[in-house]
From TrEMBL:
Lineage of origin: Eukaryota, Viridiplantae, Streptophyta, Embryophyta, Tracheophyta
InterPro entries: Leu-rich_rpt, Leu-rich_rpt_typical-subtyp, LRR_dom_sf, LRR_N_plant-typ, LRR_R13L4/SHOC2-like, RLP23-like
Protein name: Leucine-rich repeat-containing N-terminal plant-type domain-containing protein
Compartments reported by the entry: Cell membrane
The keyword Repeat is annotated on this UniProt entry: yes
Topological category with respect to the lipid bilayer: Single-pass type I membrane protein
Transmembrane annotation, as ranges: none
């Protein structure tokens, strides 16, 4: 063959193999030139068939023969060959085990199943997917250990097994995956030594090893070999014997993000040379050092790591008693967390130190909750005018409302909960941040006054928590874009028709418990399709639950305890497939205990029907609630024997959880 023709032929083959493909359904308008093969279409359908898909994430995956799987959600094909090369189903709510039918996707290079509910061990067949470059199984419920076959997947550039239920030791052979650029094993329960063989992964740019278990480093010098490292997370890994960890970290000239939360750094000695202490070559932009029991003496070694590049500094949950003035000279600092140091801090001095240089111009987030601040702060004292986020939860700001907050015109996040404030809200407070606030927490104070107008200050997806105060009167106006509304333990009265002002696509959490609310449940309540938590307990609500209540298919918690609700439970409640907690105690519900509770609500942990007017026998179907921990059917009009199969509910907290005060036939066992 002519050499030129041969070269052209090889180039065409290379192009055919490497052509970038579409992820149809993801917004790419390019046309797929060839349909997927029938074999790969059937493989994907088999993968789907073995899963539960409550969110209908895979609704586009249809079985008709003319269906082109390259157009399905999450599927990417090579434009020229039609081969499936990428499967990416992120946060799809899929449940089950990963099917070995994926082996039939023989050209797959990218498998991303992040943030679903896959369970079981990491499937063995994945080790046979030799073309994989990208494997992301993070944020599922996978268990067992890291299998050895992972170490044979030498083409991997991206491996994420983080946030699962994996245990055991981390295999040393992972150090042989030298093509890796990204490795995430964080948020699992590993133990033992972090393998020094990780020093062989010289191409790594991102390394996340933070664990829930107990791991340690015996010698950190291997880290110096990772010269390309940009982000490093080692939360919860003991560095108690690594006296030179600052030297090692400082040698990583590309490192911009470092998290050493809970690494026992307080036990480390710091024998530095003067030349090191005078160094300011650190490239770190984000630094997390929380939960290390550090004292203020740490500032002498913190200085080399804090240059004008630093943007985020987290010193929370330590034993610090203040901040040094030089931190005020960090001209790029955008966020400072000093929370949970239990310090007694002079507030004006604290702010003066922060404002001594240029930090006052850049700081946007200040998180100092759970410290005791003393000293008087005037409106003129506050110089951090650009703050967007302020967390001063549990900081002893009371008893008067801190009016200086009203000088912070750019706030989007404000938390001043649990500050002993016994006052009213100052005039104009609710109009300070039109459409800006996304988080407001004034809970656990003693603030009084009429129900505020909550309609103007809040932006999209906002959260409001005014619980445990002394607000009173009817609630009339609320933001239309709330995702969470917490108004419990106040003295609010009247109906709850104000909920109809909220956009139905936003509300996820609603807690109006422990008030004086009355009337019937408005029809609009059942239109909140995203609602996960509904707590209306301890009010005086009345009427029946309508059939439309079953539209809340994402509901996980339903508390209606101690109201005046009546009637039979509607059959549509069986749609609550995700419900874990159901408390209907102390109402006037009647009828038989529905059999569909046992047949359909398989995720229930708590079922409390106590003190109603249910009658009949206890349905055997309740024995199907394998996850049930608390069952209370007492103080109803039930009769007949207790089903013996209830003894099989081994997750029950204790026998005392089983009720014993029903009106049942004489000489019959009671529940």
């Amino acid at each position: 063959m002519n050499l030129c023709v041969f070269i052209i032929f090889q180039l065409l083959l290379l192009r055919l193999e490497t052509t970038t493909s579409n992820q149809v359904g993801g917004g790419d308008d390019n046309v797929v030139m060839k349909k997927c093969s029938d074999k790969e279409r059937r493989a994907l359908l088999d993968f789907k068939a073995r899963l539960q898909d409550p969110d209908e994430t895979l609704s586009t995956w249809r079985s008709e023969e003319e269906e082109d799987c390259c157009k399905w959600r999450g599927v990417t094909c090579n434009n020229q060959t039609g081969r499936v090369i990428k499967l990416s189903i992120i946060s799809g709510g899929l449940e089950g085990e990963v099917s070995n039918s994926l082996l039939n996707l023989s050209y797959l290079t990218h498998l991303d199943l992040f943030s679903n509910s896959f369970h079981g061990i990491i499937p063995t067949f994945i080790g046979s997917m030799t073309r994989l470059r990208h494997l992301h199984l993070g944020s599922n419920h996978l268990n067992g250990t890291i299998p050895r076959f992972i170490c044979s997947m030498t083409k991997l550039r991206y491996l994420n097994l983080g946030n699962n239920d994996l245990k055991g030791t981390i295999p040393r052979c992972i150090g042989s995956l030298t093509e890796l650029r990204h490795l995430d094993l964080s948020a699992n329960s590993f133990y033992g030594i972090i393998p020094p063989e990780f020093g062989n992964l010289t191409n790594l740019q991102y390394l996340y090893l933070g664990v829930v278990g107990r791991c340690r480093v015996e010698n950190l010098h291997w880290l110096s070999s990772l010269s390309h490292l940009q982000q490093l997370g080692m939360d919860g890994i003991s560095l108690a014997k690594q006296n030179h960890w600052v030297d090692v970290i400082s040698s990583l000239q590309s490192l911009s993000w470092l998290s050493l939360d809970g690494c026992e750094l307080s036990q480390v000695m710091y024998p530095y040379s003067s030349s090191f202490l005078n160094s300011s070559s650190s490239s770190i932009e984000v630094l997390y050092l929380g939960n290390n029991s550090l004292t203020s003496s740490m500032y002498r070694w913190l200085f080399p790591l804090t240059t004008n590049k630093l943007q985020i500094l987290d010193l929370s949950s330590n034993m610090l008693d203040g901040i040094p003035k030089y931190l005020g000279n960090l001209c790029s600092l955008e966020s400072l967390s000093f929370a949970n140091n239990s310090a007694v801090v002079n507030f004006p001095d604290f702010l003066n130190n922060l404002s001594s240089g240029c930090t006052s111009l850049t700081l946007q987030g200040l998180y100092v909750g759970h410290n005791r601040f003393i000293g008087t702060l005037s409106n003129e004292t506050l110089t951090l005018k650009n703050l967007a986020n302020l967390d001063m939860n549990s900081c002893n700001l009371g008893p008067h409302f801190p009016r200086w907050i009203q000088t912070l015109k750019n706030l989007s996040y404000l938390d001043i909960a649990n500050n002993g404030i016994s006052d009213t809200i100052p005039l104009g407070f609710w109009d300070m941040w039109p459409s800006k606030l996304t988080y407001l927490n004034l809970s656990s104070n003693n603030i009084s006054g009429k129900a505020p107008d909550l309609s103007s200050n809040f932006g999209n997806n906002s959260i409001i928590d005014l619980s445990s105060n002394r607000f009173y009167g009817p609630i009339t106006n609320v933001s239309s874009t709330l995702t969470s509304l917490h108004l419990s333990r106040n003295k609010f009265s009247g109906g709850i028709s104000f909920l109809c002002q909220i956009d139905q696509g936003f509300l996820v959490v609603l807690d109006l418990s422990h008030n004086f609310l009355s009337g019937q449940l408005p029809d609009c309540l059942w239109d909140f399709k995203e609602l996960k938590i509904l707590n209306l307990e301890h009010n005086n609500l009345s009427g029946m639950l309508p059939t439309s209540v079953g539209s809340l298919i994402k509901l996980e918690v339903l508390y209606l305890y101690k109201n005046n609700l009546s009637g039979e439970l509607p059959l549509s409640l069986k749609n609550f497939k995700r419900l874990s907690f159901l408390n209907l105690e102390a109402n006037k519900f009647s009828g038989n205990v529905p059999v569909w509770i046992g047949e359909n609500l398989s995720r229930l942990y708590v079922l409390n029907l106590r003190s109603n007017s249910f009658f009949g026998t206890i349905p055997l179907q309740l024995c199907q609630l394998a996850n049930l921990q608390i069952l209370d059917l007492s103080l109803n009009n039930l009769h007949g024997p207790i089903p013996s199969c209830l003894d099989n509910l081994t997750n029950m907290v204790q026998e005392g959880s089983l009720a014993t005060h029903n009106d049942m036939n004489a000489n019959s066992p009671v529940l």
